[in-house]
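Example 3.2
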Amino acid sequence: MMKKLIIWVFICGLILFSFYFLINPERDDVTAEQDEPKPRITQDIDSLIEQAILNYRQLNEQHDQITVHKKSIKMDDPEVKNWIIHTHIQSAVLQNEELEGIELVDRAMTYKHNHDQLMKWAEKEHQIDVTDSEVDDYIQKQLEHMDSGQETQPFYTKLSQALNLSETEYFYEWEYDRMAEYLVQDQLFVTYQELYPQEDNESLEEYQDRIVILIEEDFQQYQSE
């Protein structure tokens, strides 16, 4: 079955590997191997995670609070820590950037803002809102897949170990909101397929690209209002 890789550039990144999602009937495993950009040859995922955590610790030691976009950010906030570490890794892998300091915090808070906006837009404009039960079921599928030894991407396991969390704690304490967003993205795509059917002589790839563009345009319009 052909797999279509969709890059959600317009929401400025999610987590390292769920930044992408596959358009096919079996989208239950975000740990499964995808054609994502690989970490730079000179820096493997272990060193990226180590550097990301080190950067956060240095920021936390140097600043109690940082003002970003006229908002005061408490550096010891677990949610801030979460987004900073993920943003460092994501930027290194996807944009080949070495973010640190205020620039790293600024980018992380931008990603968090876009995450929050996407969730609000999906609920307000399309009545899409995933339940705790749906997120729980989805996380359990990821854990079962990892327990079976089928995980092809080591990111989740390595990061949970670096944070001294069990895999279960990691998904519920660290990735819960992003797992919810992954499900919302999935439902958005289905909703737009219902709103905009495939046209005659339009290939599947062209159709999927058009759906992503339509979602991007509508979301950007919502953000500009």
